[in-house]
Amino acid sequence: MTEVVLVVRRALISVADKSGLVEFGRALEQRGVALVSSGTTASVLREAGVAVTPVSDVTGFPEMLEGRVKTLHPRIHGGILADKRKPDHLAQLEQQGIEPFDLVVANLYPFREAVAAGAAFDDVIEQIDIGGPALVRAAAKNFQSIGVVVSPAAYDELLNELDANGGLSRESRFRLASEAFEHTASYDRAIGDWFAQQGAREPAGEELPERLVTRFDRVSSLRYGENPHQRGALYAAEGTDGPLGGAEVLQGKEMSFNNWLDAEAARAVAALFAGDERPAAVIVKHHNPCGVALANTLAEAYERALEGDKVSAFGGIVAFNREVDEAAAEAMAPVFTEVVVAPAYMRQALAAFARKQNLRVLRAPLPAPGGLEIRPVDGGALVQDIDGIMESAGDMKVVTSAQPTPEQWEDLLFAWKVASRTKSNAIVLARDLATVGVGAGQMNRVNSVGLATRAAGDRAKGSSLASDAFFPFRDGVDAAGEAGVAAIIQPGGSVRDDESIAAAEEHGMAMVLTSRRHFRH
């Protein structure tokens, strides 16, 4: 069966995005297409010398209500919705003196842009398009008889098809209709989300949103997923700057599925120190920090983070909390690193990194605090507030006779932050604002203490330990004391807290209870 090609003789153009409008309108005119347009779209075309018939001349009614009513009229929608395959439809158009359209070119008021710019409530309301979505949906529904274009990016392709085939194929019309419905659906989601936010004025602690609707658009295909036999792709959430805040890959091989996961984990730890006046370096391996440090320079911070676990750092991901300088880049040179991620890079740092062509250099802003975390489960999702450190030393209670020294307080709070981004059961040992041992992802807490203290070796002596959740038994505290740990910070809340406190007393350790846990599965 020969495919029916739609010859375009008459087009309705009503666009908020005027990109390429004049050139496109002129190109249609040169191909013998009669143009009908409304509002500022008609004005722009007319001023450029493109012949256009105003919508008001077609409807017999002027634009009304400050432009809220322009195209909502039977002479417009009848010309769009008539199924030209049906003689009865064509007869009705003739009876009413309505001329059919062959093409609708429409995109919608800049609602998202108004919200992003912080426009006043009433101004945002005025950016809710009514006539535009009606035009787009009507034309998309009737794709058998009419084409619809919602993006200036499609103009050239459409013109090329008109020249090559003398019209639009059914395949093209169907594809354009699909894009059109996605366009209006996305627009409505943005409006719905904004309305929900306006109503979300309940005090903290109220229920999470009743409905979550997020569209993800594929940014790129990946070589594979976590393993070579799994398909993988990178997607961007609609209404955001994209993965990792709009991250840019400045050099190196293609980012893998696991690279993206670990880069996000490293970036999240670096963000814990976003407000710190000291540079921070983070090394992540398999989604857990294996080395974190604060220092006077980025290079020193990296070197001290590396000392935390040189073995695990091989093939790891490095993140910094500020612009990377040449010295930090040179400090990284001897170690094989998969990815470095930071909010900015000095020119000299990029030049140093360029000598390691396989190193992926990622520029990404540090994530802002707050928001929701969504984890898919079979048939649904778990949603929670993103965990953040809100407590300070003043919120905590020392429960032992030994009091932390000022230096130990610094290390305890530092380790507490790192533990909050380490997989449970998390144990983090720190000395002089650098990790010396990390135990993560274990099925019991005493094993995590063992991993951390063995990794630290002699550096465990005099270190400060953070535990993301309480000690269910004293065995973990005993293991820490035997390794020489000097101070412990933990949430408390176990029915055996007294036993853990007693163990700390016996080992001469200071113990601080935070009354809040940061457990992370």
Structure characterization notes:
The chain contains 20 helices and 21 strands. Helices cover 38% and strands 19% of the residues. A six-stranded mixed beta sheet has the order 8-13-12-11-9-10, sandwiched between helices. Strands 16-21-20-19-17-18 form a six-stranded mixed beta sheet. By secondary structure, the protein is an alpha/beta fold. The protein folds into three domains: 10-197, 3-Layer(aba) Sandwich (Rossmann fold); 246-363, AICAR transformylase, duplication domain (Cytidine Deaminase, domain 2), CATH 3.40.140; 393-513, AICAR transformylase, duplication domain (Cytidine Deaminase, domain 2), CATH 3.40.140.
Radius of gyration: 31 Å
Mean pLDDT: 89
What percent of the residues sit in helical stretches (DSSP H or I)? 25-40%
Low-confidence stretches: none
Distance between the termini: 57 Å
Mind telling me the CATH superfamily name of the largest domain? Methylglyoxal synthase-like domain
Strand content is 15-25%
Name some characteristics of this structure.
521 residues; alpha/beta; Cytidine Deaminase, domain 2; six-stranded mixed sheet; 38% helix; elongated
Secondary structure layout plus pairing:
Elements (H helix, E strand, L loop, with lengths): L9 E5 L6 H10 L3 E4 L1 H9 L5 E2 H5 L14 H8 L5 H10 L6 E4 L4 H6 L4 H6 L4 H11 L5 E3 L5 H11 L4 H30 L16 E7 L9 E6 L5 H4 L1 E4 L5 H15 L8 E6 L2 E7 L3 H11 L1 H4 L2 E5 L5 H7 L4 E6 L4 H7 L6 E4 L8 E6 L2 E6 L11 E2 L7 H15 L6 E4 L4 E5 L5 H12 L7 E4 L7 H9 L3 E4 L6 H10 L3 E4 L8
Parallel strand pairs: 1-2, 1-4, 2-3, 4-5, 11-12, 12-13, 19-20, 20-21
Antiparallel strand pairs: 6-7, 8-13, 9-10, 9-11, 14-15, 16-21, 17-18, 17-19
Helix pairs in contact: 8-10, 13-15, 15-16, 18-19
